[in-house]
Amino acid sequence: MLTAGVQSGLSLSLRAMQTAQFAMALHTKNIANQKDPNYTRQQMVGGLDAGLFGPPIARFRDMFIDDQYRTSAASAGEAGIRRDLMARVEDIFGDPLQSGLRKSLDRFFDSWRALSETPGDEVLRLEVLAAANEFAYQVRTSYTQLQQIEVRINEQIPQTVDQINAQLQAVKELNGRIAALQSTGLSDADLRDKRDAALDKLAELAGATSTELADGTVRVMIGAVPAVDGLTLTEVEVVDGPKGPQPKWVGLVAPEYYGGGTLNGLLTARKQDLDRVKNGLNTLAVKLAENVNAVHKTGYDKNGNLNNLNFFNIGNAGADIAVNPVLLADSSKLAAAGQPGLASDGTIAKQIADLANGALSAAPTNEDEKYTPVNLFRNIVGWVGTRAKAVQDQSDLAKNHMKLNNEQRQSRWGVSVDEEVAMMTVQQKAFQAAVRVMNAMDEMLDHLINRM
Amino acid sequence: MRVTNNMLLNAAVYDLDKLRESYAKAQAKVNGRSLERPSDDPVRVVEAIDLTGAQMRLERAQRSAEDASEWLAVTETSLSKLIDQVAAAKETAMQAGAPSSLEETARESLATTIDSLAKAYYDELNVSHRGHYLYGGWKSDQAPFTKDGTGTVTYTGDNQEIVRHVAPGFEISISVPGSRLMAAGDFVKTLTDMAQHLRSGEMTTVITDDMNKIDQVMNHLISVRSTFGLRMQQVEQYEAYARDGLINIEDRLGKISGGDLAEASMKMIEAQNAYQVAVASFSKALPVSLLDYMFR
Predict the structure, then answer these.
(1) Which of B1, B5, B69 should be substituted to probe chain A, the one whose Cβ sees the most A Cβ atoms within 10 Å?
(2) What is the largest CA-CA distance in chain A?
(3) Which one of B5, B11, B50 has the shortest CB-CB distance to A417?
(4) What is the CA radius of gyration of chain A?
């Protein structure tokens, strides 16, 4: 009886030593992973038991905090990309006081005003052409830059869809491996960390939400569609839409793709933010050019000829607008007079200068055409500024939420080196104690075996 | 709350970012650029666009007003010259009424004076300034008056007035078309006829009919000149308005885009200090952990 007690005491202290060693290894692992934002602090719960692969390990994860974090990640993803894109749109308009487009618009009308007063002056004719050329150049550049932003968006949509699919794949695979581990008793903590990282990314990219199922797998919802459901996967593909590439669920006719996050940010930026500015700028340039042309055609040039020339060549859109090359080549063909042969007749020039004060269209087909050119420009800039500020604020707010949630996460399951070191000392002492016990047992055995 | 090392680090990075951002903003303001992009302050940006537009219009109005002043002055001087010649003609006509002027030599001398006055008057009608005929209306590139053998003057110019935009939405006429000068009769013809009358000794006609015609022209020209005086006053007034407006606009623009330099630099120094203090304190606090004291 006594011998058995001593022997079991030996194996008990051995297990105590192993448990302490295992716990220390776990603390070391925690410390080693302290910089990994996706790592969840692990702790041994209960001791080492015979017949098991390892001691039971607890992961300090909290689904509620995760859900909150992912909600703000989705908003941050959506607002963040829109903020970036609006910042680029803003760059086009630049410093509102020094902006090239605004200055050239004012200068354009001013040069006509000057010409209307001294229509015979050659220098003023050249100034009108230079100002108009500058205006057309500014419109073309701005419009082209807006188009480039749209091209960037259209490139980014398939890239984002690829990223979403990659993460969905990862979640599905990890689901399989985690489910397989469920019955073995082996720790799935590291696999779950990987899966949580993928779910975080999916929330940011597509506004995905997830629910854990009984078998340890998760269901990932994007909009109304379960993109991953346990071990089944529905991927997203890119098809041609009316405005460019458009995401769609593979193999599903309905529902249409709808989600949040970065991808939705890109779609919204293309559909709402960019379109508004592009249309506004287009209306400004095209309507203004049409109005100038209509007046200019009725005018007489310096030599009293009625040339019926367009002042601007309009082309298809704002990107094509240019001053008529015939005029650039021969400034005397500029029509400033309303009647032939009157050197001080600046009627036409005055009418064009007065276009600055009239609505872009007498019979407006949209809101923009109701304004004067400068006011429309000012509205566009005001709109861009307000919208950019709104998405900036949204993005700041979402980022702040994310920061708060991240702090909660860190606070709950981040690794504190101080804590680990302190706990390690505890385990060190436990190990030393176990060794002492074993020593005592050994001495007892020694007494029994050798000294009896 | 449980605080981990990473949390401290993240908070430090975040706070430093914020401080750097506010420092950059304060610095931009010192450089006079508080509105670098529309989103900095959309309402002010829109106001700034309105103001810069108004600024350009006022500057144009100011230049037009300066130009108008010049033309009005030139025209007024020319009108005064015409009036002087009419006055001289009137004096000559009055001399014709004196008994001593009945002498043929005296009459001839008076007639010669009138001839030269007629020529001077005619030349003044075709006066030009900087390549523009003053009394040609919009047809300012051709001499507006022609004279035939009998001394009859014909106006071939245009009947419209040249205007200058001296204030946004307000135009002022800076010329008088020659046809209006002729409204009280062809004065060159009157003088030519008068010289004829003097030579033929029709003194009664000279001091009655011719004198009447001279008076009419005189009154008419004086009334035309007085409108120019009024216009000059108006232009000066509008020039002053434009000047005041520009000062107001520049003041407001300065407030919108730059603001108070002293205040801005104070804010910048504050931001700089906050940043430096934060960097110093974080650099001391962050690297410490229990590991520095245990397992050594």
Answers:
(1) B5
(2) 142
(3) B5
(4) 37
What pLDDT shows up at residue A2? 54
Q: Which amino acid is at B224?
A: V
pLDDT, average across residues A139-166: 94
Closest CA to A380 of B38, B132, B262, B121: B38
Q: Compute how many other C-beta atoms are within 10 angstroms of the C-beta atom of residue B203.
A: 20
Tracing tokens 């397989």 back to the chain, one arrives at: A180
Number of A–B residue contacts, CB under 8 Å:
155
- The neighbouring-strand residues paired with A229 are A219, A232
Q: Is B13 on the interface with A (CB under 8 A)?
A: no
pLDDT in tens, A304-345: 899 899 999 998 877 889 999 999 999 999 999 998 888 889
Q: Which residues are registered as beta bridge partners of A43?
A: A58
Question: What's the CA gap between A449 and B194, in Å, rounded?
Answer: 166
Interface confidence, given as ipTM, is 0.82
- Distance from the Cα of A241 to chain B's closest Cα (Å) equals 31
The verdict on a CB contact (< 8 Å) between A381 and B139 is: no
Helix, strand or coil, per DSSP, at residue B90: helix
Contacts of B203 (CB under 8 A, 6+ apart): B96, B97, B101, B102, B197
Digit-by-digit pLDDT tens for chain B (296 residues) are 888 888 888 888 888 998 998 898 888 878 766 677 888 888 888 888 888 888 988 999 999 999 999 999 999 999 999 999 999 999 998 888 888 777 888 889 999 999 999 999 999 999 999 889 999 999 988 899 998 888 889 999 999 999 998 887 788 999 999 999 888 888 999 999 999 999 998 888 888 898 999 999 999 999 999 999 999 999 999 999 989 999 999 888 888 776 677 888 898 999 999 999 988 888 887 777 888 888 76
CB within 8 Å: B39 and A392 = yes
Q: B145: helix, coil or strand?
A: strand
- 3-state helix vs strand vs coil in chain B, percent to 5: 75, 5, 20
- pTM of the complete model: 0.83
Band of pLDDT at residue A121, cut at 50, 70 and 90: confident
Least Cα separation, residue A357 to chain B (angstroms):
10
- Token look-up 């689901």 returns A175
Q: Which of B159, B121, B128, B162 is nearest to B143 (CA)?
A: B128
Nearest to A431 by CA among A439, B91, B37, B201: A439
Which contacts qualify for A328-333: CB closer than 8 Å, 24 or more apart? A328/A129, A328/A133, A331/A122, A331/A125, A331/A126, A331/A129, A332/A125, A332/A301, A332/A302, A332/A303, A333/A301, A333/A302, A333/A305, A333/A307, A333/A309
Q: Are A385 and A90 in contact (CB under 8 A)?
A: yes
What's the token pair of residue A349? 């020039």
Which of A320, A322, A270, A313 is CA-nearest to residue A293?
Answer: A313
Closest partner residue to A95 (CB to CB) among B36, B64, B164 is B36
Helix (H) or strand (E) holding A85: helix A63-93
C-alpha pair distances (Å), B19 with each of A313, A397, B203, B273, B274: 51, 17, 100, 10, 7
Partner residue opposite A411 with nearest CB, options B7, B57, B132: B7
Cβ-contact A211, A173 below 8 angstroms: no
From the list B202, B69, B54, B76, the residue with the least C-alpha distance to B135 is B76
Which residues, listed in sequence order, are joined to residue B112 by a DSSP beta bridge? none
β-bridge mates for residue A232, sequence order: A229
For B256, the token pair is 């919108």
